[in-house]
Amino acid sequence: MKYNLTQIAQQLENELRERLNKSGLMFRLFSRVKTQRSIIHKMGIKGEAYRNGTLLMQDIIGFRVVLYFQDDVDIVALFLSSNGLVRKSIDEPDSSTFRPQRLNLTLSIPESLVDDFRHELPEEFAPYIGSTYEVQIRTIFSEGWHEVEHDLRYKCKEDWKDCEPYSRTLNGLIATLETAEWTMKSLFHEMATKNYLFGNYRAMLRNKMRLRLTNDDFSPAVTEFLQQHPDIAEAVLKTDRMIFVFTLLHHRQHLPLTFDNVLFLMNRIEFLNPELKMLETPETRQIIDEFLAS
Description:
The chain is α+β, with helices and mostly antiparallel strands and about 290 residues long. About 55% of the residues lie in helices and about 10% in strands.
């Protein structure tokens, strides 16, 4: 079966969405395939660099991953960078200038789809197009800003001539949004700490991990265990969330993200508490074993 560009993009999107869904991360995913008109427009801007071999057009297929929390950007970027990375483009923060930070990844089209991908390219532009696709990673706050900026400044630069103060003010909004992002992350960290001190370990886990969990509480046996072992609850609070979420992304098997399963997996990879492991049902033990082996 031959795939057109839209079908190839759909296959790539399905794979990306599946991996992100099983991680429990809160996200939105958007995709697009460049039209011939868009290709012609880009050739008009960078055509010389394409024709002399300096650049290749690498974003015929593009995705945007929009994440709810700023620290999830690094997790997703690290994971995707381990899967066919061609180029990583990131703006380093500049303390003296207001400007948005971009994180774009260029990834290789899977070998099984390359022939179909190249067959579907417009013949006159094919030599200037790489067998790649692009993933842009944004936070949900910066996504709104980028949409406005792209349509009302980037696409109409002539309108902004002699308007430097306004352009700087527009960039300054990014600083406000970044402050809001870090404040929101700090808020949930403080809530997790407060919940731990109050012995509300369900709320502690939810606010610590900030993931889409599939139920609303620990089982009675696990609840009783945590009440009797506050040292394990403290260990949960101190768990490196980035490592845990990356583990969920890295392994291919799906692990239902119940409160119990999250705690059991933490125990398997970090705490190694034998009493807690004994609370795994045979079915749960098999699921976790298969997950870690995948």
